[in-house]
Amino acid sequence: MNRSASPFTGNGADVQRILRIDGLPEAALDAAACFHAHHLLQARAALDGTDLLILVFPAASFDHRGWRLAAVQDLARAAAPKRVNGISGDDEPAVAATVAYLGKAPGVTGQLFAVSGNGEGKGPY
Question: Regarding the domain with residue range 8-117, which homologous superfamily does it belong to in the CATH classification?
Answer without folding.
Answer: NAD(P)-binding Rossmann-like Domain (3.40.50.720)
